[in-house]
Design brief:
This protein is mostly helical. The chain has 2 domains: about 55 residues, no CATH class; about 230 residues, MetI-like fold, CATH 1.10.3720. Helix 7 packs across helix 9, helix 9 crosses helix 11 and helix 13 packs antiparallel against helix 14. The relative contact order is 0.09.
Length: about 350
């Protein structure tokens, strides 16, 4: 006996886009009111911004932006070389561009943990040497460029990438030293961490720029960029140390007892058992500090270094471009956002790969 069962489909208002809107945006009187308010705010803010930024804007170099009410992106297209590279000789900009492409390529390749091997380490070593030769010059027929002319994105990446790379292992050593049973080492680490964390970064930058040179022998000088780099490393390492110490304190004592039962010494215990687990659980706060430190590199503008922010300000000092600071700052904010998003996205990827479900 055959039976014909008619398939009854759900109402169209309960499925698809309409169903999702009804369930998530208009599911109750309160949600309906909130949806209308937020939609109104977006309508009266986003639409005018898009009108200003895209529709009524000028993009061509040397455009007469005084005649429009839209954005003047001509300030970027006309001055991008100065904003991005500062006083680096413009006839050899291919060298810093090549160096930046190499650095970004190495960072992207390093995102894949399957490629973490000796060859990647050798690639980084060779890449850093090549980048240094390209930027500095003076050999292989390359024109020498004084480090004082390094500016813009070059200086920002130099201070951030190398500063954060050096600060992380230093912070780990400080965290281990603070938990040491040796009074001298523990006292030094506690004093260092609390002293550095008790002052703002700007004070360290001023000391490195103004006070430190006073203690050098007469006729001796240290490059201002190097002094700023050391200040950033010292500052970031102190905060990393406290984050790592929190991870070490969160380890179960059974881990240490298991290592002792296997006959492992202190170095082996920390390197093989404790630190891998402790560093894994402090990935989120560690990345937050590194992102904050990356953004704080813009403070070197206070001591006269021409990083990305300073080169932008120098462009805005031209009377022709006065009044168009919004476009310039939006541009560099986008650069900072892309870099910070890359770091944040990679941290989430690393957390997921290292998650053991425990």
């Amino acid at each position: 006996m055959e039976t014909n069962i008619e398939i009854v489909k759900p109402p169209i208002t309960n499925v698809g886009v309409i169903g999702w809107i009804r369930e998530n945006l208009f599911s109750s009187p309160l949600n309906t009111v909130l949806t209308i308010i937020i939609a109104s705010i977006l309508w009266f803010s986003v639409i005018p911004f898009l009108q200003w930024a895209l529709i009524d804007s000028y993009w061509l170099p040397d455009s007469n932006c005084k005649e429009t009410n839209g954005a003047c992106w001509s300030i970027i297209t006309s001055n991008y070389k100065v904003i991005l590279f500062g006083f680096y000789p413009q006839n050899i900009l291919w060298r810093p561009i090549t160096a930046i492409i190499m650095l970004v390529s190495l960072l992207i390749i390093s995102r894949n943990r399957n490629w973490w091997n000796a060859y990647l380490g050798y690639s980084w070593l060779a890449g850093l040497i090549i980048m240094g030769v390209l930027l500095k010059g003076g050999i292989l027929g390359l024109e020498a460029v004084d480090i004082e002319k390094w500016g813009g994105i070059i200086l920002t990446l130099l201070l951030s990438v190398f500063g954060l790379t050096a600060a992380y292992p230093l912070g780990i050593l400080l965290a281990l030293g603070r938990q040491s049973e040796m009074p001298v080492i523990k006292t030094f680490c506690v004093f260092y961490i609390e002293l550095i964390r008790g002052v703002p970064l700007i004070s360290l930058l001023f000391m490195s720029s103004v006070v430190f040179p006073l203690f050098l022998p007469e006729g001796m000088s240290i490059n201002a960029i190097l002094r700023a780099q050391v200040a950033i490393i010292m500052f970031t390492a102190a905060y990393i140390a406290e984050v790592v110490r929190g991870g070490l304190q969160g380890m179960n004592k059974g881990q240490f007892e298991a290592a002792d039962s296997l006959g492992l010494n202190y170095t082996q215990t920390m390197r093989l058992i404790i630190l891998p687990q402790a560093l894994k659980i402090v990935i989120p706060p560690s990345v937050s500090i590194l992102i904050s430190a990356f953004k704080d590199t813009s403070l070197v503008v206070i001591i006269g270094l021409y990083d990305l922010l300073k080169t932008t300000q120098s462009t805005l000092s031209d009377p022709k471009w006065m009044g168009f600071s919004a476009e310039a700052y939006i541009f560099i904010a986008l650069i900072y956002f892309i870099c910070c998003f890359f770091m944040s996205n990679y941290s989430r990827k690393l957390e997921k790969e290292l998650d053991t479900g425990l």
